[in-house]
Task: inverse folding
């Protein structure tokens, strides 16, 4: 495109692209061979990619494995410390095991589990659990070891035949034991936690570590004949992991099938023609199939985003381009062209816009490949592959379908659909916008700017199990532990010291650490060596208290203290509230630990644990996604500026592309939500859809500007040409995404709500803001008639 002396943008020469797309449309044999070859290649990738990869890369290691979840936390001290205590001592663990069985009674019940019927029921449950082959070890209150010969000796629990007075004494004794309260029983005595270590050799299916254990506990309790009133829940690492996998595998397929079904029905209603709907649906579906096969060849198939995000993304992008292409072909068929010529004309006129949408979307995702985290980098490459495969499927399937018997009835229903009937009314809205373009353009710029500023207040967050179905048993158990015991997950403070530090100073440091942790309301029940020594009889200074260490059993002492390795630790419970809630808490704890370290030379204190790792690293992942999203927006603007050879057009495109994201992000701020991985992924998906519609509008606008007429007439004709496709794609996609709103998972609901909101705002920006901006700031082509305001 050239520019005149006033900087007017002219229509670029599209003869080369038109020639390429015309050639492709005129060679159905090449299209068919390409479709069969790529489908066969993808099928091999889905079925067994090693049939090809082993021949191509024989030197590749077949045993290479990747486990992103076990990312090591580097020490950085330059000192080597063994991770395990001496092999002849097994430290006592107040937590552990792959499964956690929760026994609970009504919180209003003051006696809790300390009565005859409930103690009898619990003892029966423990015996039943210990007899199950898949359970290797059971840890509960009765397994807590004695402290010493002088205090807190013997079992904590009385016989079920004990008197009420004995139960009251046992309750008081148990709730004073630091190894019991907040660890294996709640402070109110109404929640009992039973940790189960699983023997995986005897596990046959998922029920063996979930429902079957809970049902066995319920049956054992009921068989005692006692009126116990105990309810059981199963949670823990294994049930939560299985529930997560089930959500990703089964629920993701359910949501996809429901969403695709709704999109099919919506498209059938909107198109009013079965032939057009089938071709529009087959194109993105084949793109998903090709993408799945390609990702397996590239060893990218195990990325956690691949279950829902990648298929939905490429389906939406493919459906958008397919609808625009189909609308153009139907219009050509209605004008009297044969299916062959209609496909040729449609591909020639819309093919370049489809290519541009794919290129800009792919460029946006390429920015993800520069992220720090491997998951995000792979997600970027997966999306790039998916966008490329979808573009190829759209420009292959639809022209081939037009030559099939389906092509003879593509124009059936044209003008009778809901969108076609309402298009004239929407056209009236566009005319009103054009008459008042000055204040509409001003409103577009100011509203986008204000909403973008509000969006900057979003803070990153991540909850480990936010994607779980809240009605699932494992999730309900997790929330119950958050409420009653302070969480399922544990964090740790590790203390290391130099040989010259005195042993009594270690206890002083431990007491300071406990005091720092105790000041935080979100930290649950800190437990360390200082608590064990505090439970022993007597008082005194740290030096005197440390002399009591010899009275502790070795398995207790070494659970939190290994003097030969100059290592001690304090553990505490953490709820699943997310890094946004715990971020300030962890920051204050680290500041407190640094202060303690400064006061005690030779000591090194570090905050560790899975939640702490996520706090430090998930923030970076979300920041990477957000930064890449911003970078993608800038790159897309540059690409559009280069393609249309107009800085004006590039600048005008910023508002309709940025406005939908700003609306949704500001809505999250007003709703008190945070910037999570699922929200950034929704933004990434929807910016691609918003850019697609904007590109189709601008391409038609520049094409119509060559036909002459006033500037406003050019914009009206551009809207008439693409308005039907804009409305159809938005209605169909919103209907499909709305299916996720009814889901039980918070992430699924958030995905659906944000998607619908962003796509609706994108349609509003393309219909209201874009025409006004074009009139206000755009330049008409030189051969167009002058326009009078």
Result:
């Amino acid at each position: 495109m050239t520019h005149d002396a006033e900087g007017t943008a002219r229509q670029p020469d599209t003869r080369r692209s038109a020639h390429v797309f015309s050639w492709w449309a005129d060679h159905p044999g090449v299209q068919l061979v390409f479709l069969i070859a790529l489908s066969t290649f993808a099928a091999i990738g889905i079925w067994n990619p090693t049939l090809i990869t082993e021949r191509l890369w024989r030197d590749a290691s077949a045993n290479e494995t990747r486990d992103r979840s076990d990312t090591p936390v580097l020490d950085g001290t330059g000192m080597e410390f063994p991770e395990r205590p001496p092999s002849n001592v097994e430290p006592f663990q107040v937590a552990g095991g792959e499964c956690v069985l929760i026994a609970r009674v009504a919180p209003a019940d003051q006696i809790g589990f300390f009565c005859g019927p409930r103690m009898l029921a619990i003892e029966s449950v423990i015996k039943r659990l210990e007899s199950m082959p898949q359970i290797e070890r059971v840890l509960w209150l009765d397994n807590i070891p004695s402290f010493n010969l002088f205090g807190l000796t013997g079992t904590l629990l009385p016989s079920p035949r004990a008197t009420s007075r004995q139960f009251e004494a046992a309750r008081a004794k148990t709730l004073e034991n630091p190894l019991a309260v907040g660890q294996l029983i709640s402070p109110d005595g109404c929640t009992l936690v039973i940790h189960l270590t699983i023997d995986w050799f005897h596990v046959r299916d998922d029920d063996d570590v979930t429902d079957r254990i809970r049902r066995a506990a319920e049956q054992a309790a009921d068989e005692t004949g006692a009126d116990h009133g105990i309810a059981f829940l199963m949670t823990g690492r294994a049930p939560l992991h299985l529930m997560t996998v089930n959500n990703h595998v089964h629920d993701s397929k359910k949501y996809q099938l429901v969403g695709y079904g709704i999109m099919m029905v919506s498209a059938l209603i909107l198109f009013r023609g079965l032939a057009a709907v089938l071709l529009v649906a087959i194109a993105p579906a084949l793109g998903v199939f090709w993408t799945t096969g390609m990702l397996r060849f590239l060893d990218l198939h195990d990325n956690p985003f691949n279950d829902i995000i990648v298929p939905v993304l490429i389906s939406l992008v493919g459906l958008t381009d397919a609808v625009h292409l189909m609308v153009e072909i139907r219009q050509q068929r209605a004008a009297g062209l044969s299916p062959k010529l209609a496909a040729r004309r449609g591909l020639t006129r819309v093919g370049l816009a489809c290519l541009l949408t794919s290129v800009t979307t792919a460029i946006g995702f390429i920015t993800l490949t520069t992220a720090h985290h491997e998951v995000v980098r792979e997600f970027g490459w997966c999306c790039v592959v998916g966008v490329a495969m979808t573009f190829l499927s759209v420009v292959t399937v639809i022209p081939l379908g037009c030559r099939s018997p389906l092509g003879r009835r593509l124009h059936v229903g044209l003008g009778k659909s809901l969108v076609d009937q309402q298009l004239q009314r929407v056209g009236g809205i566009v005319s009103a916008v054009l008459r008042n373009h000055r204040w509409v353009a001003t409103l577009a710029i100011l509203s986008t700017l204000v909403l973008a500023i509000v969006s900057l207040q979003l803070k990153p967050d991540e909850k480990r199990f936010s994607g779980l179905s809240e009605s699932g048993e494992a999730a309900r158990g997790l929330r119950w532990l958050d409420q009653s015991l302070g969480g399922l997950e544990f964090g740790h403070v590790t203390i290391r010291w130099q040989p010259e530090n005195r042993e009594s100073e270690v206890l002083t440091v431990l007491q300071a650490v406990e005091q720092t942790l105790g000041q935080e309301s979100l930290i649950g029940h800190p437990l360390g060596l200082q608590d064990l020594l505090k439970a022993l009889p007597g008082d005194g200074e740290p030096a005197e208290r440390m002399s009591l260490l010899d009275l502790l059993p070795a398995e207790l002492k070494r659970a939190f203290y290994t003097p030969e390795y100059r290592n001690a630790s304090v553990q505490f419970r953490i709820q699943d509230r997310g890094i946004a809630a715990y971020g300030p808490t962890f920051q204050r704890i680290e500041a407190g630990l640094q202060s303690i370290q400064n006061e005690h030379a030779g000591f090194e204190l570090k905050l560790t644990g899975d939640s702490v790792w996520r706090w430090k690293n998930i923030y970076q992942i979300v920041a990477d996604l957000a930064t890449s999203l911003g970078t993608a927006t800038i790159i897309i603007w540059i690409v559009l500026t280069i393609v249309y050879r107009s800085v004006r057009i590039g600048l005008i495109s910023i508002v309709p592309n940025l406005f939908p994201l700003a609306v949704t992000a500001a809505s999250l701020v007003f709703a008190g939500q945070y910037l999570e991985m699922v929200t950034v992924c929704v933004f990434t998906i929807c910016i691609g859809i918003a850019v697609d519609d904007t590109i189709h509008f601008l391409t038609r606008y520049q094409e119509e500007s060559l036909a002459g007429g006033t500037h406003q007439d050019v914009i009206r004709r551009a809207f008439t040409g693409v308005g039907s496709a804009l409305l159809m794609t938005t209605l169909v996609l919103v209907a499909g995404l709305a299916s996720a709103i009814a889901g039980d998972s918070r992430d699924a609901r958030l995905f659906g709500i944000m998607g619908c909101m962003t796509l609706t705002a994108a349609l509003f920006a393309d219909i209201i803001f874009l025409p006004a901006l074009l009139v206000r700031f755009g330049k008409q082509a030189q051969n167009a008639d002058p326009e009078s305001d």
Q: What stands out?
A: Residues 447 and 659 are 8 Å apart (CA to CA). Residues 1-13, 59-85, 149-153, 781-789 have pLDDT under 50 and may be disordered. The chain has 24 helices and nine strands. The first helix runs from residue 15 to 25.
